[in-house]
Amino acid sequence: MALLVLASAPSNPAGFGQSAPSAPKRPLFIGAAKRPSARLVSAPASLRLRLVVGTSSLPPALRLGSAAAAARTNMEQLGDELKVLGTWRSPFALRVRLALNFKGLPYEYFEEDLDNKSDLLLKSNPFIKKLPVLIHNNNLICESLVILEYIEEKFSDVGPALLPVDPYERAMARFWARYIEDKLVAPWLKMFRANTNEEKAEWMRETVEAVKTLEGALSRKLAPFFGGDDVGYVDVVLSGMIAWMQGTKALCGVELLDTTKTPLLVEWTERFAGLEGAKEVMPDVDKLVEFAKIKRAKMMALDNN
Ligand SMILES: N[C@@H](CCC(=O)N[C@@H](CS)C(=O)NCC(=O)O)C(=O)O
């Protein structure tokens, strides 16, 4: 067997391999100065009810029903507890909630105020102090892609798998996830924060290029989702950006998703938003745009001071 590796010097990302600090002993919030609002989120009732149906001949979205119910039973039996720290507008936190929803794993959701970070967030992610954080019993897991992989590995026997089984397919899914991070999310954020029209145009060009590339990747799949017939890892990673991409015209003047240039992605967004596990957590685009306009005005005001 011959393996050809094209590489530069190996890298070891800062912080990799460090273990999270121990979580506060439960109860987590008693006496805490700042306490994010918490809400128990379970697999949608419509999914749980379908447990009674024989599932093998059902379409994927319905098959999730038995997974959700089985996951709930498993979690209860094992005494497992999942908590998610997020905020409604975070594309990264959304990924985590979607993955848990699709797997049918119940979790408690804590809506954070990023202008006034809670003690729980600061203790849970002391190195980066960002959302999302997944708290599984007393394990703290940060960084959305790391969290998705943790969920996939830890609950491999629960609900549908998000990563493909085949190692090559897995590698490809991870490649596209990385691509979305580096070539879509990062330039989009830079475009949104750009101070000059030239900078904005440059980052917009990169963002549009990435969207085009993803349209091509989806067309080569010949399937409704990047994961194939069902949603998978890449769908979850990209879906965090759906509402932001839809709001880009209102925010930055360019339509990223449109039926002539990116027909497959437009259909994909509609298909995705219609899934049981997605409906309840996808942010409202108008609300997002409103929020982002205020945020940008504040950033500009700070820059001008
Ligand atoms: N690479 C991180 C990005 C997380 C991130 O940027 N989170 C934002 C919310 S969208 C945050 O917590 N920002 C707080 C801050 O920057 O202080 C991930 O994938 O989880």
Automatic annotation (TrEMBL):
Keyword Amino-acid biosynthesis applies: no
Molecular function terms from GO: glutathione transferase activity
Domain GST N-terminal: 80-159
Membrane-spanning intervals of the chain: none
Superkingdom to which the source organism belongs: Eukaryota
Keywords in alphabetical order: Transferase
Reaction equations catalysed: RX + glutathione = an S-substituted glutathione + a halide anion + H(+)
Pfam families referenced in this protein's UniProt entry, alphabetically: GST_C (PF00043), GST_N (PF02798)
EC nos: 2.5.1.18
Major enzyme class: transferase
Domain GST C-terminal stretches: 166-297
A GO biological process held by the record: glutathione metabolic process
Any single GO CC term annotated in Swiss-Prot or TrEMBL for this entry: cytoplasm
Family of the protein in this entry: Belongs to the GST superfamily. Tau family.
Protein name according to UniProt: glutathione transferase
